[in-house]
């Protein structure tokens, strides 16, 4: 990072530098929020896929759809589509 000679700066230069710093801090907070949402969405998608895979095995094993629905909380229609 390049050092700035403060002697040659005007007051509005300091304001600009401070505003730029605040903008970059906001960008960092925004990016962190995006990562957290993406991580949460990925976990939820993975969990849903896991439940569907278990339901497929149950269905293939001959377990009644009503029982699969009760165990997995999937609708009977969703289980039929597996």
Helix tally equals: 3
Tell me the fraction of residues in β-strands, as a range.
under 5%
Distance between the termini: 56 Å
Q: Helical content, roughly?
A: over 70%
Number of strands: 0
Stretches where pLDDT is under 50 for at least 5 consecutive residues are none
What's the multimeric state? single chain
What characteristic shape results from the CA principal axes? rod-shaped
| Largest β sheet strand count, sense and barrel closure | none
Number of domains: 1
Sheet/helix structural class: mainly alpha
Mean pLDDT figure: 87
Written description of the protein model:
This protein is mainly alpha-helical and 82 residues long. 78% of the residues lie in helices and 0% in strands. It has helices at residues 11-60, 65-72, 76-81. It is rod-shaped.
Quickly list its features.
82 residues; mainly alpha
Short recap of the structure:
The protein has 82 residues and is mainly alpha-helical. Helix content is 78%, strand content 0%.
Write the layout of secondary structure elements.
Blueprint: H1 11-60, H2 65-72, H3 76-81
Helix pairs in contact: 1-2
